[in-house]
Amino acid sequence: MKDARPSAGLPFMKMHGAGNDFVIIDSRGRNPVTTAALAAALGDRHRGVGFDQLAEIRDVEGADYALDFWNSDGSRAGACGNASRCVADHVMSGLGRDRVSFVTERGVLTALRRADGLVSVNMGAPILDWAGVPLAEPADLLHLPIDGDPAAVGMGNPHCVFFVADAEAVDLSADGAAMERHPLFPKATNVEYASVTSPDRLRMRVWERGAGITLACGSGACATAVAAHRRGLTGRKVTLDLDGGTLEIDWRDDGVWMTGPTAHVFDGALTSAFLTQYA
User: Fold this and answer.
1) Cα 206 from Cα 216, distance rounded (Å)
2) C-alpha distance from residue 146 to each of 10, 89, 90, 250 (Å)
3) Which of 36, 110, 188, 199 is the one with CA 20 to 30 A from 75?
4) Angle CA(170)–CA(176)–CA(177) in degrees, nearest 5?
5) Residue 165 to residue 107: CA distance in whole angstroms
6) Predicted model pTM
7) What domains appear along the chain, each with residue ranges and CATH number?
8) What residues form DSSP beta bridges with 263?
9) What are residue 111's DSSP bridge partners?
10) Known catalytic residues?
11) Which 3 state secondary structure label does DSSP give 54?
């Protein structure tokens, strides 16, 4: 396959949603360019650009575009809610529309811009069977056999959700890192710690699989809201306060909708010298 990367450099965007930050590469009209090695190099905040996840936009039939996701360590991510909202905002602006459809590993999803300017995305139905999450063996997803009594939810990637008295008191760097590779999760897991602050509000902090501590996690917010409702702690519509901002989650019949802010921070171009290291 011919190398699709421009010899003069590769354009990219830097965006964030509630502090969850992304490099976005638009590969519509050409072959996708991202490899695991390139993603890991770009994810280095000292020698690359730095991001929680990288999203690559590509052409697809049957929807406006497709999205592929990478974590900052170069591993693939099956879902990324805030990146999905950021890319949707960018594409909707380019098309002059307030609704788009796009394809991820979760299938065809929908995003829209609300009248208040916030962007919503339907993240699809939660995965609520042990093999789909996936877990290594059958278990009660609402009460995993793990100290702390967490719940498990799949949102295109696995999530382990702990409900705690005070999310602020959790040592994310120690507890999150330890749980990411728990043997019950054969593909590792995102780890969320949430406190109920009112019947329709949660405080959540997150350790993301392949990225570590992040200021927000869209799929994690969805998973936490689903687990909270299934445990009888909240209704199906909740607000989550994360380290980087606030997200609204609404678990409807057609899927879990997530709404929040987006920001386009800057545009840049990767140099040809940088790219040749990962050809």
Assistant:
1) 7
2) 45, 39, 41, 28
3) 110
4) 135
5) 36
6) 0.93
7) 10-123+262-278 (3.10.310.10), 151-253 (3.10.310.10)
8) 16
9) 100, 121
10) 80, 217
11) strand
